[in-house]
Amino acid sequence: MADDKHEPLAALGLRARLLLAIAFSWALGSALVWLVVSRFGVDWLMPSLALGALVSLMLSAWLTRRLSNALKSMELGLLNLIDNDFSASLPGSDDPVLSKLSSLFNRASETLRRERQHLYQRELLLDKVIQNSPNLMLLLDSSGHIIYANDSARHELHGGKGITGMTLTALAAAIGEPMAPILTGDTDGLFTLEREGDSETWHISRGRFTLNGFEHQLILLKQMTRELSRQEVAVWKKVIRVISHELNNSLAPMRSMVNSGRMLAGKLDEPRLNLIFDTIDKRTAHLGEFIEGYARFARLPRPIKAPVDMARLCHELGLQTPFVVVGELPTEPLIADEVQLEQVLLNLLKNAHESGSAPQEVAMAVRTQPASAASPAGVVIEVMDRGPGMSPEVLSQALLPFYSTKQQGTGLGLALCREIIEAHDGRISLQNRSGGGLAVQLFLPAQGA
Predict the structure, then answer these.
(1) Residue 216 has pLDDT above 70, yes or no
(2) Which residue ranges does UniProt annotate as crossing the membrane (predicted)?
(3) Per-residue pLDDT for 4 more than 60?
């Protein structure tokens, strides 16, 4: 604005200035014609007109050249913006009006460039989040074709192969039962799948929305097994804490009363009373141990992970209970809480011996598992026996707290194993072996998997 005060023509628009330039050039041409005719006579009228017109055109072209160049530069800049090229900028100009236009264009271009970069970064971040989400995501267009699918959907539904461009019907046909009717249905909610002897709980939800004037459908599938299991275990732990608290409050005075009763019985010289008090004391102690076992399950701490040498761990386990190591042990250390992992393996080996299996048939195998479309990289530990195995009903409930087929069992052994392994972000599964016996498989993901 300060420069405009010192420029007499700055206040004039481009059109007025252009008209002034043309008028000035034609006035100069007319003056040239008048000079020639007045000096050389009327006979020179036509040549003087031609000369005047030529001079006027040349002068007009010279006066408007800068404006023409500026307009061409702006036209090229606008064409670049149409082509989504926001890197173009216009050079400055001595003319204040052209300089202002160039400045406005450059500011608009810079703003568009920053906005586009911001949107690109947000889209990149959103795509990264979606692609790494464990939830399965399918986006369908109005014709039922899949126009977007994240990595989890490709791996879970099509073995890691691309599914973009397929129709939902074709994908369902490739998947087969029991997922196909669920995927092509129109209901939301929970459903259960049986996979490798394990029951998995899933949730499916569908949403429809309009995008760019066309209707789209978004299908989301979420694995709920671990979440439901954690909630179930949390409920069990709360129940255990309440029961333990109430029983411990009753056991303490009972033990005190037993001691007092013994002292009184000694004065009465009645040996049968001592037998009664011994029995009560023994059963009270057993009940206290029983409650403490459940309390340990409820107070299970988070694992403190560190490198574990499997060769050394197997040697230490062999000193406590006999078993056979099948195959080679991995040389790379396993990342886990060694105390908790030892507790799990010792419990499983103890169960294997109690199954009625011959001691030489109790075995353990440890192998590394590379990453695949269905599972991340990690270590698989398998404890096997040649006992009678489990019925389908027992297999489906064996990992639940309080469930036991043993007369003196607490129903905590396998439940505690499951809790420890899932706290390591792993999984545990049970299956009968061909030829008889049971195999308990533990999977622990590699660090960072």
Answers:
(1) yes
(2) 18-38, 44-64
(3) no
Residue 418 tokens read as: 């499951």
Upstream peptide bond of 96 is cis (omega within 30 degrees of 0): no
382, containing H or E segment: strand 378-384
Give the 3-state secondary structure of residue 357: coil
Given a cut of 90, whether residue 119 has pLDDT beyond it is no
Asked whether the beta carbons of 21 and 63 are under 8 A apart, the reply is yes
Among candidate residues 172, 204, 211, the one with its CA nearest the CA of residue 189:
204
The neighbouring-strand residues paired with 136 are: 221
* Residues 330-345, mean pLDDT to the nearest whole number: 90
* Cβ atoms of residues 154 and 163 within 8 Å: yes
Higher pLDDT pick, 42 / 79: 79
Which range is least confidently modeled, 138-152, 217-231, 341-355, 405-419? 405-419
Task: Write the DSSP symbol of residue 90.
Answer: P
Give the model's pLDDT for residue 3: 47
Whether the ω angle into residue 178 lies within 30 degrees of 0, i.e. cis, is yes
Q: How many whole angstroms separate alpha carbon 374 and alpha carbon 385? A: 27
The DSSP call for residue 153 is H
Decide: 337 and 424 in contact? Cβ < 8 Å. yes
Report DSSP state, residue 132.
Answer: T
Question: Minimal CA–CA distance to 222: which of 149, 152, 167?
Answer: 152
pLDDT in tens, 30-39: 666 666 656 6
Whether the pLDDT of residue 13 is over 60: the answer is no
Cβ atoms < 10 Å from Cβ of 380 = 16
Homologous superfamily of 133-223: PAS domain (3.30.450.20)
pLDDT of residue 345: 93
Q: How far is CA 85 from CA 91, 106, 314, in A?
A: 17, 13, 64
Quick one: which of 216, 204, 221 has its CA closest to 147? 216
pLDDT at residue 396 tops 60 = yes
CA nearest 225: which of 428, 31, 53, 3? 428
CATH of domain 306-445: 3.30.565.10
How would DSSP label each residue in 25-51?
Answer: HHHHHHHHHHHHHHHH-GGGHHHHHHH
What is the C-alpha separation between 169 and 183, in angstroms, rounded? 9
Sheet harboring 438-445: ordered strands across? 324-326, 363-369, 378-384, 438-445, 427-432
In degrees and rounded to multiples of 5, residue 149 shows phi and psi of: -150, 135
pLDDT 10s digits, 348-379 = 999 999 888 888 999 999 999 887 655 678 89
Where along the chain do its domains lie?
3-120, 133-223, 228-298, 306-445
